[in-house]
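hey so u asked for the seq, here:
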Amino acid sequence: MQRNVLKIGFGAAVAALPGAAFAASDAVLLPRNLSPWNMFVNADIVVQAVMVGLAFASLMTWTIWLAKTVEIRRKTATAKRRLGLLETDTVLADVEKNCRGGDDAVAQIVQSAAREASLSGGIADDGFKERIALRLERVEAAMSRQIARGTGVLATIGATAPFVGLFGTVWGIMNAFIGISEAHTTNLAVVAPGIAEALLATALGLVAAIPAVVIYNHLTRTISAHRALLGDASAMVMLLISREGDRGTFQLARAAE
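ran it, structure tokens below
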């Protein structure tokens, strides 16, 4: 009887050995913790490259937002100040003197109109107004392109970052399944770290894409408002020229310069 009990106990111990071995193997394969940094360190080199690229894209997004916000606010304040001058009872020559040397959009509009006036000999006929309108249209387009510079990067990041993160996830999960086949086990403790590392790439893709889309839409609205100010400046210059032509003082104003 005692011999049978010993055999049963020995058999149970032998049967328990493989499970214990697998448990020990799983404990060895598991990382110390599943924090984002530890998952990044233990990820595949391709997944790590994807994460670094997404982190760089996110940093670029916030840098562009800060730079463009400061630039647009400064240029909008200058444009409003120039518009206040154009709305007063003044002449093109005085406005051109005030804007001389300025590199802002409204100053460029005024200087372009004054240059055409100088080339036209100060004669405010219909052809002159058409030439002024063409010049102002070109200046508006150039200034609009200048202030919108850099926003295309935000659109690219917002559109591609989720797919880049998805690529990192697919690559990481593929490696996780390869690891499962090599370990000959389907224990969740072995599978979970690799899948978690892969999903971190998708999370970083969303972290990079969502702010980029929001910031791009915000900057698009503010740039549209700034373009409206440039349109108002062009209209004010045309009104100023038309008013001087009707009064017959345009040539005198140019001569006084």
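The chain has a mean pLDDT of 78. Residues 188-247 form the longest helix (60 residues).
lmk if thats what u needed
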